[in-house]
Structures are given as C-alpha cells and as structure tokens.
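Field: sequence (string)
Field: structure_tokens (string)

Example rows 1 and 2, in order.
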Amino acid sequence: MDDRPSLEIPPPAFSLVDQIGLFLRGIAMGAADVVPGVSGGTIAFISGIYERFIQALRSLSPAFLAPLLKGDVRGAWAKLMQIHWAVLLPVGAGVAAAVLTMSKLITGLMVDSPGPTYAFFFGLILASIWVPLQHMKQKRVAHLGVALAAAIGAFAFVGLQSDGIAFQAAHTDEGATAVFYGGKLRSPSDLAKVQAFAADGQAVVVFDPKGTLSKAGVTPGANVTVHTDKQALYDWLETKPALVVLEEQRAPLPWLFFCGLLAISAMVLPGLSGSFLLLFLGQYHAVFSALHQTIGGTLNLLGRPLDPVSSLTAHGYVTDLLFVGVFGCGVLLGLVLFSRVVSWLFERAHDVTMAALAGLMLGALRQPAGVVLEATGTGTSWGLVVGVAVAGAVVVTGLNLADGFFRRRRAVEVA
C-alpha cells in the first residue's frame, strides 16, 4: 500500500489579511522577475509562500470543462472552486501590477545604477540560501552533492554570454539620410549594431541620456550624432528627417510562445532567472518594449498622445497586444506544466529538492556579483554596494523571522 501523501491539497480559506500579504509578495516577485539574474521564485521562497504558490499553480486545471460540456453547471462550478484562487489571484495581481507599473523603473535602475541594484539582489539571494536548508527534514552527505551539482549548473547557466539586444528596421523612409534608434543605449556594443544598418552616406543618430558611451571611453565617429537630452531629441524629430528607424528584434509568434514557456519555467525555480533566459534568447528587450508600447497604446486610446519616438516605432495596438498575448499564453502553459513537476518533487523527494534549490541560489550569485564587480571597477563606491547588499540580507532575515514567528503562532492556535 502506498502511504505517501496525496498531491491534492484543498483550496485555502479566504482571509483578507492573507490576501494583502500575498499581493505584496506578488509585487516583490514581479519586480524581481524583471531583473535578469534574479528569480521571482527566490522571492516567493524567502517570503514563505513558495510551496503554497506551487500547489496553487498545480491546482490550475481544465477539469471543469468536462461537466460544463455535459450541461452540469453545478459540477463545473465545484471543479472550478477546487482551484486555489485565494492564492493565485492576489499573487498574480501583485506580479502583474509590478511588471506593468515598475518594469520601466527597474530596467532604468539596472542601466542607471547597476551596482546598488544588483548588490541589493545579491544580499537577498545570499541570505536566502539557508532557508531551504532549514526546511530539510534530514541532512545527508548525498544532499551536499545535489546542492553542489545544482550550484555548478546554475553558475554555468548565468555565465552564458548573450548577444544582448538585436535590432530590426521598424520602417524605412524613402531617401533616408540617417539610421535612428531611439531607445537608451545600454552598452557601446549597441552603437556598433546600429552602425551596421547604415549604408554609405547615412548618418547614425542615437539616444544616450546616461553617457554610456563617454563612461566607456568611446568616441563616436564623425557621422554619429548622440543625443543626451530627451527634449533635444524630440525637437530634432520634429524636423521630420527621412530615417531608417530601428527597434528591438521580434521573434516569430510560435518561437515567442516557446520563449514564454521556457522563461516562466526558469522563473518558477529559485535561483534561475527567466528574464536572463529571455535575454539569452534575444527576446528580453523585445518583450518589454512590446509591453510598454501596449500600455502606451492603451493610454493613447484613452486620450494621451504618443511621444515622438513611440510614434515612429509603433506597430499598431493590435499587433503589440497580439505579441504580448502570445508570450503570455506561453507563460501560462509553462506555469501549469512546470508547477506540477516541482509539486511532485516536493512530495516525493522533499529534502533532495530543498538541497537543489539551495544550490541553485548559490550558483545564481554569479550574475549579480559580476555586475557589482564591474560597477565598482568603474567608480561605484564599495561602501555603497556593501551597504545595499547588507540591507537586502536584512530584509530577507526579517521576513524569515516574521514567517517563523507566525508559523509557531498558528501551530499554537491549532493545538
């Protein structure tokens, strides 16, 4: 007789305090998911909801469709209510709110203040490694081997070199005299990629508000115009020059769907960053660009005019919405499928899974550590990054102490 526990867990009861807490955790998860090298799964783990979140994802099922097709509305409703909506809705709303409202801020911080931004996440992850080890029921030498193997795998994964951003022509005016890219330059290599589109006699115009080129000691060529002021850039566009306008390269929709499925599968695991995987697949910038254009298109429908750069690169509201929607469908399928794998592992190999998660987070430290070291090498204060990293570690420690306190309190109340 199989005496292992059932994988099925009844849906949790509704609690307003719990819903608010889950929503706030969802915001933190969404903010982390935007950053390449940081996983929303890590935030779920250190905030004490990872196993609940996985079980809630596992409860997602189309089983309600069978009775519904037979006309059994009551049976369909009963199946629908077995889904853990009390967890999925607040966490999902928090993640969506963070991605929609904070993605520009966070991606901006990654470009403008990479040292402190990644130092904070380094502190978060470093202080989180002991959490899965603490949840292990037994600790054996074999678990150390699992943790080391997972750490090596994660270390190798985040060490992969992506090509960063890739470009394509959004449109080409007849008799174009210049090649224009209106997004912020993130590295000197971006300029080289833009220049590759310029034909003989065509100038190159780019936007570099944070002085990326000057900080790297790059001197633009005679045919390159670098705008550092947004209003000056807009004023130049008002002269309506004939342009080849570049944008982030977009993948075909079937491949985009697969990218969404792969990325969210990585995001579910603490230590593996779905955003980093998207960056490696060449779709990170395209996805967030399409998301921001969809938001801009929605606001445009409500009466707010598009800025001059967005007006040049806009695909059309329906096209942008379709791009984001296909990616979202891949994300949803990945959540449903991969959560079942993780849930099964928790039930059948709990301690091995916990050891592997600790190893994944240890190996993942390579990404934020590399960015921090690079930033300190170009002038960022060591005192600043160490202070921010300590702050991140304090946040994690505080969350886990609070989680432990409430767990003990609930155990006393149940007893």
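Row 2 begins here:
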Amino acid sequence: MAIDTSDFKNGLKFMLDQVPVQLTYFQHVKPGKGGAFVRAKVKYLINGRNVEKTFRAGEKFEEADIEMKKVQYLYNDGSDFVFMDNESFDQLPFPPEVVGDNAKYLLENMEVSVMFYKGKPINIDLPPHVVLEVTETEPGLRGDTTSNTLKAATVETGAQIMVQLFINRGDKIRVDTRSGEYIERVKV
C-alpha cells in the first residue's frame, strides 16, 4: 500500500531510501510562491538516527514491513539479551546492538514491545517509566526535600541516575526510560 504525504501522522512507519523510518514530527507548508511541501523529522528505525527531511506534497512512499510483538525479558546470558515471545513461548536472543541504551532499564520479567523488520528484531520499546531500587548513593540529607541539588545514584540495573539529595540506598525511584531522568521516590 502506498503512503502519501497527506497520510502523514506522528508515529507513521514507512520506507525511505530502502530503510524503515518512523515519522516523529511533520508540518505541511504552503509558501506564497511555488508548490506545497512537508517539513518532517524522521527516525531511522535500524540505527536510531534522527534526521530532518523535506518532501514535496503528494510524494508517495512504500509502507514499512514492521511487526510489533510483546515479549518478556528473561536474562542476559553474557553475550545476548534473552526474551520470551508471549504467544509462542520461544526464547529469542537479541544482540546488544538491538537493545542499545535500553539495557540500563531492563528488569527481569519486564514486558516490552519489540519491532521486527523482515523477521529480525531492530528496536525495543520500553514502558515510559520504570521503578528501580537504588543500590548505591551518598547518604541522604535529612530535611532537604525542596532543594534542586542532585547527586549520583546507581540503580539495580547498573545505570547511573541523578537523584535528589534525600534519596538513600534501598529507596525505590521512578525513572523516565526515554530521558533517563529521575521522576519521584516511590513509597513501598
């Protein structure tokens, strides 16, 4: 099925230069002189690169052969990250290049969405927020709950997160997986 620039919407996946991309932003522009065009930002799904592009109005593209599957993260075997397909229960080893920076937020038994292109995994979508336990940080300061001063903390997955001064070892914190930023302390 052909996709036209008039079909553009954020999140649309299509082929560009023989590679699957996802539209992250677009704006239809109709200048006083000349033909209309679309200014867009696309993310290359295989390497994660973001690029700005300009398309002529009415330009056509091929729909990307992308399949999304829910899988459950099981463990890291030292070389690959092993996931389980929730429908067939097959174990799927993914190389570290596919998991990328998402490894910093992966917890055992976490359910994630995996994007497959021509049967091969190319990208992992984590939930927007995860709750992680702080395993190492400087001792917190009593009563310092309003300061915007941050300190480094290591969480159970090994990731370094900047947290507020009152966070202590053993605290559970909510982290934004898209930006890697501390959101809040979670009461247990």
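free_text_note (row 2): The CA atoms of residues 65 and 117 lie 6 Å apart.
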